Amino acid sequence: MADPGQHDPRVTDVGRLVVRCPDRPGIVHAISGLMAGLGANITDSQQHSSDPSGGTFTLRLEFVLARLAERRPELEQRLAALAGEWQLDWRLTEAGHRPTIAVFVSRTDHALQELIYRVRAGDLRARIACVVSNHRDLEPVARAAGIPFHHVPVTPESKADAEARALELVGDVDLVVLARYMQIVSADFCGRFPERLINIHHSFLPAFVGANPYQAAHDRGVKLIGATAHYVTPELDAGPIIEQEVARVDHRATVEDMRRVGRYVERQVLAQAVTWHVEDRVIVEGPRTIVFA
Amino acid sequence: MADPGQHDPRVTDVGRLVVRCPDRPGIVHAISGLMAGLGANITDSQQHSSDPSGGTFTLRLEFVLARLAERRPELEQRLAALAGEWQLDWRLTEAGHRPTIAVFVSRTDHALQELIYRVRAGDLRARIACVVSNHRDLEPVARAAGIPFHHVPVTPESKADAEARALELVGDVDLVVLARYMQIVSADFCGRFPERLINIHHSFLPAFVGANPYQAAHDRGVKLIGATAHYVTPELDAGPIIEQEVARVDHRATVEDMRRVGRYVERQVLAQAVTWHVEDRVIVEGPRTIVFA
Amino acid sequence: MADPGQHDPRVTDVGRLVVRCPDRPGIVHAISGLMAGLGANITDSQQHSSDPSGGTFTLRLEFVLARLAERRPELEQRLAALAGEWQLDWRLTEAGHRPTIAVFVSRTDHALQELIYRVRAGDLRARIACVVSNHRDLEPVARAAGIPFHHVPVTPESKADAEARALELVGDVDLVVLARYMQIVSADFCGRFPERLINIHHSFLPAFVGANPYQAAHDRGVKLIGATAHYVTPELDAGPIIEQEVARVDHRATVEDMRRVGRYVERQVLAQAVTWHVEDRVIVEGPRTIVFA
Amino acid sequence: MADPGQHDPRVTDVGRLVVRCPDRPGIVHAISGLMAGLGANITDSQQHSSDPSGGTFTLRLEFVLARLAERRPELEQRLAALAGEWQLDWRLTEAGHRPTIAVFVSRTDHALQELIYRVRAGDLRARIACVVSNHRDLEPVARAAGIPFHHVPVTPESKADAEARALELVGDVDLVVLARYMQIVSADFCGRFPERLINIHHSFLPAFVGANPYQAAHDRGVKLIGATAHYVTPELDAGPIIEQEVARVDHRATVEDMRRVGRYVERQVLAQAVTWHVEDRVIVEGPRTIVFA
């Protein structure tokens, strides 16, 4: 896919800095001093203290700095100097950078289509590097969008080999999105993409476990169909939540109607979560996330 | 509380008929024929077939029939005649009737206050017959609204006696509402009010079990705080769902903030569920409800 | 586009009947008698009385009738017989029928893409017969979906000719959708598609008139961005409303952000309105609609 | 009303600082340096730049400073020193302070009741100093809550005198809330409470002007009923918007149903707007607001 935003005036010389450190008075002063010293103009700033007395401080800055690409080493050097003193974790991104995404799918296309649409529309500033699937159904969708498609069949016996093969094909991407992949990935796989592996799953109140949650939700007569996008950790479906949303159904909805409603919620929640991730708006803090939306 | 709607022109001669029977072609024709024969004008009609081939048929009619109170016996006679042939369950209500409600509370007043407000505003056409609590905290709220208040302390040892005492005090009400009562009621209690006992509880995606679900939801970083109103059955929190809603929170919300948001969702969901029940809009069908909203 | 639902078991022998007439007691009995007499099983029924005393009665039935296509003439004959007596307007549709749609667009593709997606997903049971545009920008989108594309440039001078040309190209479709066409259509055009011409436009509270409503909404700091789908009548933007929705923005949203949010609301509202129309769920009643959703 | 939060641990030593000035690099550094120099710990910080190049910079800080009340003069002195250099407007509040509110009503109580409830619940940290009305209907509501009630009849002839009388009775309050007052206040009145006078009114898409907007909205068949809370300026209904929300209705809603739905939206939107105002979260910037929610 072409990159329509390569010379986008919205992103030239725009940088993003995410910082995390133990909370101590003066940290904002130290970082704002660093930015002011460089002549950077902070255009957006959001911060969070997990606990005013002794928690973790998290800060996200958007700034404009003339000739950002050229002056990046200088900025990084100053940040490194500050990092020791304040125990800073930091991440610096040029807004013009388009991270690469590998999308894993199975047979349903709603989540993948939405990601493709938002990339094309310029609303999701990323590049879908490849689509990986255990089925061939969505190959035409990927091809039509000019995205490489890798078919990696998975059977109970071949699971480990298939994952290894998928990892090899995917290579060095910035983010992996499980867009209704319907396969549980291994702890090794999770470990390859720490805080860079996003999944979407349906959610109900109450939760329904077992083979067919939509049938169970229907039998119980739930009124809301939800979806949750979260980072994947080795504990199944227990990773930090990025975004959730629900849609309303009533007693007339069949199981199939509920699935359909669920698909529209899923595509929206996943696309929102991926967009926030790509814009460095999501910071993982233990079992939860901070979302500077 | 006075009854501002006693001579409300909206309800004079307005009746509601709810019918349930095995689904067979011709049932609508039979019932509409009965109503037409009496000269009743059907102003609202909603129906549901659980399964087009051999399920349960449910119908709710609102109708205007001149001199309804006087002609009610005639209507009932005709319905009884039809009931045998079609295996009808039916319930006939005059819209002018104000059902009585007993509200069970503990220490928080948000749900009770909302019910009192909606009765006063004329939006919930019912009469709160009494408030029962295991604490004295909300006695002033009930008193200020002119509602009898019964203090029935509950201890682990006295639980059975306390329930018996509460049942005695409550007497013969049309509906019991657990408006944050915080006590598990017995199967006997549930059996006294079949499909006439409504509870409200918080809901999350995913569900969190254990002693402090708000803390667990906070730790996991949920983005939606929900509430579910349901009929109470002996299986805890598993009765037919009437209504659900959620509100949005973000990472800045403390556990206390989440509780506060939860209270506003709970009061709205409970008041809506009670209003629909009182207007004969909720029909229980096994583990789920049909809500002719 | 192929028709994946041609032999869809959900629609075989499923019919829809929409009826409108002056409200008189007995009308439901008469119609249900007709259906029962044929052996049709009514699976969904919704009705509305504009005014219990002397208004208009509207009814929508979904039914299953074995060998529907074959028995349709018989059903139509009986309806015609009833029509005289009760002054019925009626419309009978086989659910297996896929109406044809002409989509008019200008340069933005969000609404068109959503319609294409929903048709493909089987959620919108229609066939997009052609795309008409005054610009060539979306020709690739139409082509990729296998839909004929007609470029009909419009200039102030050529407006009447362009409309005539577009009408000729569109021919005899069931529905015309203005999916961000950005051109005002003539009263003649509206008259060609009575109650079969749907438009989408942005909506704000309050409304902003003039050349750049998004700029005006931004300047005033609105917190909700909305969209309205409506039937087009010769009075601009005043036709019967089918569906509306809003999304939330805050003070950080730029005019461009607001437009982007607006696009997602628009595509959803338009797709919903078109789907309801196609399923015979929208009945126009003077300046408003009844939506049996 | 008693003040349950007088010694609330959540607010002891908690301060809020709102700052506005021309945007220049270094401003965050300057203010954070001032706070760090005092030993204040910033627990929440939100900022906004109206335009990265040459707009207005707005900042809201929450901070904890040991012995805040005692050290306030020192803090103010330092802020005053900074103000000259940076052209700062600033406002400093101790979170323990409970601002006073005068509530103007007419005959409907939903908005007033909600404000009373939220104050009592501790969710709105303010004190309702008095209720003013041109009718006596809500006197019992105010009395029951222990709030002074002033009856100030208004006739077309007495309008100016009535306003003068109301202003005298109200005296020196921090905020005036028009909670369905149904009277247009004069430009003089507005001028007395600059950015401290909040109104609630219903909102539709599209807007309906004239005597009976609910009837007009009903006739047009709108699907959303909205409400807008805004600061009042001499231009009617055109002041900076603080908050908006909508609720869904369908074709079955009567005009009276729409009014009822509107009341629930209004009470929620107004209470939210007042709460944000009281917590110094709303900053007026010309015709719009910045809401640091």
Question: What labels would you give this structure?
Answer:
homotetramer, 293 residues, Rossmann fold, 2 domains, 7-stranded mixed beta sheet, 34% helix
What does this structure look like?
The structure is a homotetramer of 293-residue chains. Chain A contains 8 helices and 13 strands. Mean pLDDT of chain A is 92; it is low at 1-6. The two termini of chain A are 27 Å apart. Helices cover 34% and strands 29% of the residues of chain A. In chain A, the strands form 3 sheets. Chain A has a 7-stranded mixed sheet, with helices on both faces. A 4-stranded antiparallel sheet of chain A has the order 2-3-1-4, covered by helices on one side. Chain A is α/β, with parallel strands linked by helices and 293 residues long. In chain A, helix 1 packs antiparallel against helix 2 (68-86), helix 3 (110-121) runs parallel beside helix 8 and helix 7 packs across helix 8. Chain A is globular and about 60 Å long. In chain A, helix 3 links the parallel strand 5 and strand 6 (127-133). Chain A has 2 domains: 14-94, ACT domain (Alpha-Beta Plaits, 2-Layer Sandwich); 100-291, 3-Layer(aba) Sandwich (Rossmann fold). Chains in contact: A-B, A-C, A-D, B-C, B-D, C-D. At the B-D interface, helix 3 of B face helix 3 of D.
